[in-house]
Amino acid sequence: MELWRHFQQNQGKLIDKWHHYFPIYEKYFSEYRNKKVTFIEIGVFKGGSLQMFSEYLGPLATVIGIDIDENCKAHESDFAHVRIGDQGDPNFLESVLNEFGPPDVVLDDGSHQMHHVRATFDHLYPMLSKNGTYMVEDMHTAYWQEYGGGYLHEDSFIEYSKSLVDQLNFQHTRENTPFPQWIRDTSSISFYDSIVVFEKGSYTPKRRSMRGNT
Fold it and tell me: Is the CB of residue 93 less than 8 Å from the CB of residue 29?
């Protein structure tokens, strides 16, 4: 895997990632390589992740890092833009969208506070491109009280994501379901250890039967 090899051979800025994230990254991000895409990573830290994804995606990608720590501005370079602000502030997020346009990929590796994760998702996901990917990582924090979570806690982003599964299947309900358009434009919601992934993609479910020769 390209990203895993980059991680293992990294001699640049510090990259702090769980090992099992890399095949998940490859699964969802490989289709964006060498294409004109806008990639937003929330949480800059030491800048190594921005550098890794920029090199992985290629020169056509616009990579933006968001962080509340002003020191992270030092990690802005030719390969990535860095914008300083609160991920839970809709005005700040809107300023990023106004500058760079709708994202194709959002990777939330920010504060991991449940209210921040939810606020960021609610603002950015509806603006995601029609075939975009939204990934929230380090969701083990959704089970920790200090991050506003807990097992089956109503404010946990994991619990919120579970609730959206029913909305994903809105076509099959027989009730009047006032689900928002942005969830109707979602093709899949996937859960992994500490990661939730949302994929955009409008489609109309169709069923057909095929008769065999027997």
Answer: no
- pLDDT confidence band for 107 (50 / 70 / 90): very high
Q: Which of 112, 115, 123, 140 is catalytic?
A: 112
Q: For the chain, which residues make up each domain, given as ranges?
A: 2-172+179-200
**Residue 112 falls in the annotated catalytic set:** yes
- pLDDT at position 168 is 78
Which residues sit opposite 62 in a β-bridge? Answer: 38
From residue 179, alpha-carbon distances to 35, 184, 202 in Å are 32, 7, 14
Burial of residue 42, with CB atoms counted within 10 A of its CB: 0-12 exposed, 13-18 middle, 19 or more buried = buried
Residue 167 is predicted with a pLDDT of: 77
**Phi, psi (deg, nearest 5) at residue 161:** -65, -40
Residues in the chain, total: 214
Q: Can you give the pTM of this predicted structure?
A: 0.89
Which tens digit of pLDDT belongs to each residue from 31-88? 999 999 999 999 999 888 999 999 999 999 999 999 999 999 999 988 899 999 999 9
Q: What is the CATH number of domain 2-172+179-200?
A: 3.40.50.150
What 3-state class would DSSP assign to 204?
coil
Are the C-beta atoms of residues 96 and 66 closer than 8 Å to each other? yes
DSSP string, 140-173: GGGG-GGGT--TT-TT-HHHHHHHHHHHHTGGG-
- What are the CA-CA distances from residue 188 to residues 15, 35, 121, 133 (Å)? 29, 22, 15, 10
